[in-house]
Amino acid sequence: MSDDRDIGYAALGFGFGIWSFFWGFTRLRRKRLIENIPTSTVRGMAMGLVELIGKARRLKTLRGPLSGFDCVAYRYLVERYEQRGKSGSWVTIAQGDSFYCPFWIDDGTGKVLVSPPAAELILAVSYEFKT
After folding, report:
1. What does pLDDT average to in each consecutive run of 10 residues of the chain (131 residues)?
2. Strand bridging mode 74-84 / 87-98
3. Nearest to residue 123, comparing CAs of 82, 80, 67, 41?
4. Which of these, 105, 131, 99, 93, lies nearest to 117 by C-alpha position?
5. Are 71 and 24 in contact (CB under 8 A)?
6. pTM of the full structure
7. How far apart are CA 43 and CA 106, in angstroms?
8. Is 52 exposed, middle or buried (0-12, 13-18, 19+ CB in 10 A)?
């Protein structure tokens, strides 16, 4: 009986290892794709994947629900750490995002309209607090 359980755990571990191996290569390929996209100007922008750096200009006012700051997109996650005896875990209280407000990117050479539902936005954490 114990041998069957050990074989099951070994098979499960082996399967997880194979999945992790291929998932890691998928993530590595994506990372390299992002790293190899040169930063472009709006005037010299080509069709397809591009990386732009500029000032975001919104078409309509959007406010971050937690910070109250004006923004063009936001994503939030509110969690609380709950202690249960000797162990604890994080419990999600609220989460949400808004990527549906089109905005302009102006880099000084021109401006381009970005439609967030069709774009992939990599957002940095700009507002975080702990109590």
Report:
1. 81 93 91 84 85 84 82 83 88 83 88 77 68 69
2. antiparallel
3. 67
4. 99
5. no
6. 0.53
7. 10
8. middle
